[in-house]
Amino acid sequence: MKKLQLIAAAIALLMTGCNEDAPFTMKDKAGNVYKTVMIGNQVWMAQNLNVETEESWCYFDNPANCEKYGRLYTWSAAKKACPEGWHLPDTTEWNVLIQTAGGGEIAGGKLKSTSGWDEDKGESGNGTDDFGFSALPAGSRGIYAGFTLKGGVASSWTSTGTSRYYAYSMCLNYNYATAKLGVSNKNYGFSVRCVKD
What we know:
The protein has 197 residues and is an alpha+beta fold.
């Protein structure tokens, strides 16, 4: 009898993942619902944010790209885009994720989605998505409205600024397994992944 009760409890726990109010999902300011994933002690969005704000765009201004890849935000827009209870991760939080995924030299391969990435000299640029983070190559928007690198790069903002014009971002590439933080102009359009408070 106890075994049946344990099985029933396990099934009930799994079923909560389908509930929009369960901890396995996140709802943005517009009511859109996203998958989330626990990696180590952090709870991350498992999809890119797709809530329309000022200074945010769909790649090539095509709504279908927003549906697939989420929106691209300037740094100032990204800092305000996450819903209550969630926030734009700082460099420390991104570094914790990178270390949990094996360190900077290999974490990119483990965080990238298993499809959608460009090939590199005939070799797949896809990742193994070991943690369910499912990073997509959403590309970016340049300062002068040029869209580039969809299929090749996933750039996501951190909340950590370095100066009046620059802030840190986290970058994954189709042709590397690395995950690295770098400095980018705050007016670029990059993806947003929120982390739970």
